[in-house]
Amino acid sequence: MKKCIEGQIMNKTVLTLFIITAVLVLLSIIPSVAQSPKKETTFTVVQRDGRYFLAAPNDSIIFPVGLNHLNIHELQQQIDTLQTLGEDELNAVLYRYLTDWGFTSSGYDRMHTLNNNHNILHYVKTEILSLASYHGEPVYRDIFDSSTYAFFEQKIQPLAVYNDDPNVIGLMYSDLPRYRPTETLNWVRFYRQLPPTAPGRLRYHEFLTQKYQHDLATFNRVYRENISTISKLSSLTFENTDANNLTMLKDDAEFVSIIYRQYLQSLYELHQKYAPNLMFLGDVFGRPREWTDELIRIAGEYCDVISFQPSDNVLDTALCQRIYKLSGKPIIIADQKVSFAEAGYDNIQGDEVATEALAATGYTDYLIACFDSPIVVEDIIDVCLKANSALVGYSSRDCLISMAIRIP
Asked: What pTM does this model have?
């Protein structure tokens, strides 16, 4: 069976990746850095020789390389020799290949049974808020309302089962949230539309009062209103605002920071309540157009590391340094892809290179750059499988990056 399966999976880039990741695995033998006493299942960030590393519960230094979005059940449907296997046998096959290829973790998506039954590092990710572009219209909540806190708790409480799992590194929350106040519907416009007595609307009134109670003329000019006293804020609909007014956009960004701080504080409190042994990884940040510098600063106050999903074929070391300087925290590359062109597959995610071989080389270079960077502590690969015209493992085709796993 193994020979048959191997015959269906292209290995030309696997060898390159295996060589690189095998080198990284050797880091686990580096003498441990002295740390204060910690709980048995707690992973931490340590510094050695001027760079950051993740440290396992036994204090050994690690550089995990993981794989996301690999769905063993969808893979089973595409390979005849897998279709008769039971759940345990399927996961044994997948586990063998991951370890043979040199992966040291399984990322954070799709492989829950594998993670539960095999000794492999992984993350747990939950979608607290649906704010990513792939969700369509963002779903906002009044972060200052106690019902939202209860909603968060309902989402996070079940994650307590992972608290004592020695293979779970940490928890990630919302994926690729869009925070910049430049969309048709954004956080601040949502708060303006809340009922006048809603906690979030009252917090927004408090924010505007602090800024404009002694300068109503500026408020009326910026927001195109005509109130005689700041106490009239509750009567406003904000229907006449100019979306391009720079002062208002600056105010909006400032209030988004207030929202985000309250959001992270709530998550952090619940994380400490239900999963204190696990690293608090916060949200996965995307392209800079979706966040502001102040949000990265706030994330640095709460998160153990900054989870970042770049969308470039080459590691943007300048951007990584910017995130590090803003947050004071090292970075996990939480999804990275190198797409390549191929006839019949036109829906490309991210930047594209001409051939599969270039994609393989590109990912190898990317992985080396991550290891060379003193502030990157992990790289998680975003992979897509395909079989003929059937898409496997991801919603929109060929981010067949890194290993370029393919089913002919």
From this structure: 0.79
d(CA 396, CA 140): 25
DSSP per-residue codes, 194-229: S-TTSHHHHHHHHHHHHHHTT-HHHHHHHHT---SS
Say whether 183 sits in a helix, a strand or coil: coil
CA distance 315 to 311: 9
Angle between helices 246-274 and 199-212 (to 10 degrees): 130
- Alpha-carbon distance of 403 to 361, in angstroms, equals 10
Burial class (CB in 10 A: 0-12, 13-18, 19+), 372: exposed
- Output the pLDDT for position 184: 54
The alpha-carbon radius of gyration of the chain (Å, integer) is 23
> pLDDT tens-digit profile of 150-201?
999 999 999 999 898 888 888 888 887 777 665 555 889 899 999 999 999 9
Bridge-based pairing of strands 51-55 and 44-48 is: antiparallel
Q: Which residues contact 128 (CB under 8 A, 6 or more apart)?
A: 152, 155, 156, 173, 174, 267
**Number of other residues whose CB lies within 10 A of the CB of residue 402:** 28
Residue 20 to residue 71: CA distance in whole angstroms: 24
Say if CB 304 and CB 279 are below 8 A apart: yes
Locate the domains of the chain by residue range: 1-120+305-320+332-408
Report d(CA 347, CA 12) in Å as an integer. Answer: 24
Amino acid letter, 177: P
| CA 342 – CA 398 distance, rounded (Å) | 9
- β-pair type (122-125, 385-387): unpaired
Residue partners of 275: CB distance under 8 A and separation at least 6: 156, 159, 160, 162, 163, 171
